[in-house]
Amino acid sequence: MAKCEICEKTASHGNKLSITRSHISKRSPRTWKPNLRSVKAEIDGEVKRINVCAKCLRDGKVKRA
Q1: Per-residue pLDDT tens digits for 2-11
Q2: d(Cα 23, Cα 20) in Å, to the nearest integer?
Q3: How buried is residue 37: exposed, middle or buried, by Cβ count under 10 Å (0-12/13-18/19+)?
Q4: Which are the contacts of 63, defined by CB distance < 8 A and separation ≥ 6?
Q5: Is the dihedral of CA 7, 12, 17, 23 positive or negative?
Q6: CA–CA gap between residue 56 and residue 58 (Å, rounded)
Q7: pLDDT (average), residues 23-30
Q8: Could you tell me if residue 64 is inside a domain?
Q9: Among residues 16, 14, 8, which one has the least CA distance to residue 34?
Q10: What is the mean pLDDT of the segment spanning 17-36?
Q11: Banded pLDDT at 34 (limits 50, 70, 90)
């Protein structure tokens, strides 16, 4: 399953809303997936390839190798 190994962010689920004539007529399920990147990171002195979301990369929570 797609998951950020730093912040544990996973896919979230909700409804896609069909808007016609200024009111919601139908709802159908949809999924929002995290924006994951596979990067080489230094963890406990070792270089490992991990899946990290773009927000953790931008915020500097990961030290890239």
Answers
A1: 899 999 999 9
A2: 6
A3: middle
A4: 41, 42
A5: negative
A6: 5
A7: 84
A8: no
A9: 8
A10: 85
A11: very high
31 and 62 in contact (C-beta within 8 Å)? no
Placement of tokens 């390839």 in the chain:
49
* The pLDDT of residue 36: 97
Q: Domains in the chain: how many in total?
A: 1
Is residue 5 situated within a structural domain? no
Please give the DSSP secondary-structure letter assigned to residue 8: -
> Does residue 23 sit within a domain?
yes
pTM: 0.76
Return the pLDDT at 5: 95
- Rounded Cα–Cα distance for residues 56 and 41 (Å): 12
